[in-house]
Specification:
The protein is mostly helical and 224 residues long. The protein has ten helices and two strands; from the N terminus they run ααααααααααββ.
């Protein structure tokens, strides 16, 4: 909102920056004037702001930084030993045990990072980004650790199989065809076992996600 933006600039100058003398702030305070943009542009030059008038977000960030520096300079003794409210009386042991306790799952950067990882690892998208993060963790633990990679790259040595011990269940009338059919059946069984193993792994991964209840540390209770 243009009016709020202009009021914000005036408040910063009046309360924190105070670059102009009080009697010289008239043009900047006249926020309804058509000439206010020119007054603001002159103000930016006077405070040595490196950004142009069109770069509002950058200008706001820079002016806020200037205001903070000046505020600190005026009250250095007051602020030098200050600690953030969230850091006071923090139990370091608990903090180390739960490093993600204060993670903001609604942060756009967090969501973008989780989505990028999910796309890279070809993980199914989910509305809850925290669930996607847990799925990524499970995949990394089971597939991408050094031990898992080393195990996956090990060459598998085949074991000799006595075909005569495996009953085909039907007779083609040709011994060579019977033997080929037995080999195909054994290969098919091996593929089914491998598929079953993957299914079991998927079930375990899903259970690990849905069986872990969400914890609301603010309420001091566990539940969905």
């Amino acid at each position: 909102d243009e009016t709020e933006f202009r009021n914000f600039i005036v408040w910063l100058e009046d309360q924190k920056i105070r670059h102009y003398k009080i009697e010289d702030r008239g043009n900047l305070r006249n926020i309804h004037s058509d000439d206010w943009p020119k007054s603001f542009e002159k103000y930016m030059k006077d405070v040595n702001c490196p950004f142009k008038i069109q770069e509002r977000q950058e200008t706001v960030d820079w002016l806020l930084g200037l205001a903070v520096r000046l505020e600190y300079g005026d009250n250095a003794d007051k602020y030098k030993d200050s600690t953030p409210d969230g850091a006071k009386n923090t139990d370091n042991t608990a903090k180390n045990a739960e490093p993600l306790i204060n993670l903001d799952v609604n942060n756009p950067d967090f969501k973008a990072g989780v989505m990028a990882l999910a796309n890279l690892l070809q993980i199914q998208r989910h509305d809850d980004y925290l669930v996607m993060l847990k799925a990524i963790r499970i995949l990394v633990q089971e597939r991408l650790t050094q031990d898992a990679i080393a195990k996956a790259t090990q060459s598998k040595e085949g074991l000799p199989v006595a075909l005569e011990k495996h009953i085909l269940g039907f007779d083609t009338g040709d011994a060579v065809l019977n033997e080929a059919a037995q080999i195909l059946r054994l290969l098919h069984i091996e593929e089914l076992r491998e598929l079953q193993t993957k299914i079991n792994e998927a079930i375990v991964a899903v259970q690990a996600i849905i069986a872990d209840p969400k914890t609301d540390h603010r309420l001091g209770k566990v539940g969905r």
